[in-house]
Design a protein that fits this description.
Elements lengths: L5 E10 L1 H6 L7 H15 L12 E12 L2 E6 L5 H15 L2 E4 L2 H16 L27 E3 H5 L10 H7 L12 H7 L2 H24 L5 H16 L7 H7 L8
Parallel strand pairs: 1-4, 4-5
Antiparallel strand pairs: 1-2, 2-3
C-alpha cells in the first residue's frame, strides 16, 4: 500500500450560478442566484438537501494530503478557476501516478470531477480510466481495485453494511472531528474562502489517517510503517499556519491510543 505515492483528496463545491442563470433563468448576483437555487432544491427534496445533482456542482477547491518518499504534505491544488484546478489535479496524477484515497470519492468527488472536466474540455491522464481486463478492478474507476480506495465504500464492505460518515469514523478512532465551519460551504465561500480551504484540507488529513489505520488492520502496513506514517502526518499538520490546526495538531500527538 505504500510502494507508490498515496494522495488522499477532497473537493468542495457550491451550486453553479452559471447553471442557475442559463438553465433555471435566475438573475442577480452569484450570492442571490445560489441562494435561490438552494431554496428551490430544498423545496424539491422536502428539505433533505440544499445541493443540486452532481453535474450542477461547481468545484471551488480541491485539497490533498500526499504521502510520498516517506514524507507527508498537505496542499491546496492550485488554480484560479474550476478549469485550472481540474487541470492541476490531473497533472498531479499524471506526474506521480498515485494511489488515490477518498471518502465517498466514488459516489461524489470523482463523478463531479468527470462532469465538470467534460464541461471545460479537460482531459484526464492517459490510463486514468484504463479498465483492461476486469472493469471492476482496473483504473481509478474500478470499485474493487486499489488504484482508487474509497474508504467509505471499503469500510462498509462495498455497501454490504450501511455507509458511515467521515465524522463518525473519526470519532470512533479518536481523531480530531470535522470542524472549522459554522455554516454551509457555499455560505462561507461567498464570504471568505479561507475556512473552506482549511476544512477541505482537514478532510484529506482525516481520510489519510483512516486509510493508514485501515491499512494496518488489513496487514498492508506493519506496525513500524504505520507509526512512521502517522508521525509524518503529525509533522505535516504542525506545519499548517492557520490557527484552526493547533487543536488538531495537539490531538494527533497522542494518536492512536493503541500505540502507547
Amino acid at each position: 500500500m505504500i510502494e507508490k505515492a498515496v494522495v488522499a483528496f477532497d473537493i468542495e463545491t457550491i451550486p453553479d450560478p452559471e447553471i442557475g442563470r442559463r438553465v433555471y433563468g435566475l438573475s442577480g448576483t452569484d450570492a442571490e442566484v445560489i441562494t435561490n437555487m438552494v431554496h428551490a432544491r430544498r423545496a424539491d427534496t422536502g428539505g433533505s438537501t440544499d445541493y443540486p445533482q452532481s453535474p450542477f456542482h461547481k468545484i471551488v477547491c480541491v485539497c490533498a494530503t500526499i504521502a510520498r518518499h516517506g514524507r507527508v504534505e498537505i496542499r491546496r491544488i492550485p488554480g484560479d478557476d474550476e478549469r485550472s484546478i481540474l487541470e492541476a489535479f490531473y497533472a498531479l496524477v499524471r506526474e506521480i501516478a498515485p494511489r488515490l484515497v477518498t471518502w465517498n470519492g466514488g459516489g461524489f468527488d470523482l463523478p463531479v470531477m468527470r462532469y465538470r472536466a467534460m464541461k471545460h474540455g479537460v482531459r484526464a491522464p492517459e490510463g486514468f480510466y484504463d479498465a483492461s481486463g476486469d472493469a471492476r478492478l482496473g483504473g481509478y474507476l474500478g470499485r474493487y481495485g486499489w488504484a482508487h480506495v474509497d474508504m467509505m465504500d471499503v469500510l462498509s464492505g462495498f455497501g454490504a453494511s450501511s455507509h458511515a460518515g467521515l465524522g463518525n469514523v473519526s470519532k470512533l478512532l479518536d481523531l480530531p472531528g470535522k470542524g472549522l465551519l459554522e455554516k454551509s460551504v457555499w455560505e462561507h465561500w461567498l464570504e471568505d474562502e479561507t475556512k473552506v480551504v482549511e476544512y477541505c484540507k482537514l478532510d484529506t488529513v482525516l481520510t489519510m489517517a483512516i486509510f493508514v489505520a485501515w491499512a494496518h488492520h488489513a496487514a498492508f502496513l506493519d506496525r513500524d510503517q504505520t507509526l512512521y506514517l502517522i508521525d509524518a502526518i503529525r509533522k505535516a499538520t504542525a506545519n499548517e499556519p492557520h490557527e484552526g490546526w493547533r487543536p488538531i495538531e495537539e490531538r494527533l500527538r497522542s494518536w492512536p491510543a493503541w500505540s502507547r
